[in-house]
Amino acid sequence: xxxxxxxxxxxxxxxxxxxxxxxxxxxxxxxxxxxxxxxxxxxxxxxxxxxxxxxxxxxxxxxxxxxxxxxxxxxxxxxxxxxxxxxxxxxxxxxxxxxxxxxxxxxxxxxxxxxxxxxxxxxxxxxxxxxxxxxxxxxxxxxxxxxxxxxxxxxxxxxxxxxxxxxxxxxxxxxxxxxxxxxxxxxxxxxxxxxxxxxxxxxxxxxxxxxxxxxxxxxxxxxxxxxxxxxxxxxxxxxxxxxxxxxxxxxxxxxxxxxxxxxxxxxxxxxxxxxxxxxxxxxxxxxxxxxxxxxxxxxxxxxxxxxxxxxxxxxxxxxxxxxxxxxxxxxxxxxxxxxxxxxxxxxxxxxxxxxxxxxxxxxxxxxxxxxxxxxxxxxxxxxxxxxxxxxxxxxxxxxxxxxxxxxxxxxxxxxxxxxxxxxxxxxxxxx
Length: 431
Prior knowledge:
Layout: H1 2-5, H2 10-13, H3 16-37, H4 42-51, H5 56-66, H6 69-78, H7 94-130, E1 135-140, E2 143-149, H8 150-175, E3 177-178, H9 192-202, E4 205-206, H10 217-244, E5 251-252, H11 272-293, H12 304-332, E6 335-336, H13 338-345, H14 354-363, H15 368-385, H16 389-395, H17 397-411, H18 421-427
C-alpha cells in the first residue's frame, strides 16, 4: 500500500533500510553520550561509528529465527563491531531504540507533508486573489442564498489550510520525543543525563516520565491532526465536485489532453481526482481512530500498538502527502466558468435579493414582521408564476409608494453584497 500512494521521498522515509538506519543513529547517539561520561572509551566510540553497519536481508533472515526484529538488528550490527560490540545497545531496551527512531521518521515525513500543504495554500491564495471579484451565488442547504465571490470561497479554504498546517506543527512537536530510560522507564541502567545527551544530539526532547515506551496519546493527537487536514482537503474536493455537476457547471477539475471520462459514454468528464481525495480522506480518518485505540496499553506497555503503527504512520503521511499534491494540481489548473456563475445567479429571477428588500422596507419604517411578510409573499408569487421577483416588487403599490422606483432598482445590485470582500481578503493576507 505504501508504494502505491507515495511520491518521491516519502517511500524512502518509510523503507526498511531507513528504519534500520534510524535505529542505528539512535544506538550510536547513546554510545556517544556514554563516551562523554567515560563509560565507553572515546576511541571505541569513534571506531564503532565508522564500522557499524547492517544488511537488511541479513536482519530479516535472523528475524526468521529469533522472531524479534530489534534483537536481530542488534546482532547483525554487533557482527561488524568486533570487541567493541560490548558497548552496543548497552542498557537499552528495544523501545528505547524503536520509539526514538520512529520520532525521527515522523519528523522527516511531516516535513514533506507540510511542504506540500504550504504549496497548496499558496495556490489557493493565488486563485483567491485572481477571482476576488468573480461573482457567484452563495448556497446554504444547497439552495441559492445571496451573492458571494469565488475569491471569498477560496479565502475560507486559505485560512483553514493555515490552521491545518499550524495544527500539524503543534501536534508534531509533541511526537518529536524519545526515551532512553530502559525497560520500565526507571533509568536503572542508563542515567537521565545519558538520555538528555543522546536525545539532544538527535534533536528530540525526552519523554519524562516514561514507561517502556513513549506514551501514545502524543501519536494519537498527531494522527488526528493529519485526519483533520485530510478532511479539509475533502471539504475542498466535495465543493468543487458539486460545482462541476452538469446542472451547476461553475468550476471543474482539470482534464488532460487525451483523457477519457467513461468507457461507455464518450461525453463524460468526471471529477475522478477529487473523488479519490474524498475516498482517501476516509482512510486517514480511520487510521486516526486506530491511533486513539493505541493509547490504552497494559501496565508499562504491551505490544498491541506495534503492528498497527507499521501501517498507520507510513500510510497516513504518505496518503496526505499524495492528496495534497493532487489538490494543489487541481487548484492551480482549476477550470472556472465565470459566465455560468453569473447566469446561475439569475436562475431564481431575483429571489436572492429578498432579504435586502425586507431590510430596505424596514429602514424605510416598516415593522419587521410586515416587511418580512411582504418579501415572503412576493417571493412565493414569483416562484408560483415563474415571474421576475424584481418586476413584482417594482409593481407592488405598497413597496413602490414606500421606496420609489430608484430605490427598488438599487436593491437588485449584486455589488452591494460583496463590497467588503476586498477588506476580508486583505485581512487574511491574500491581497
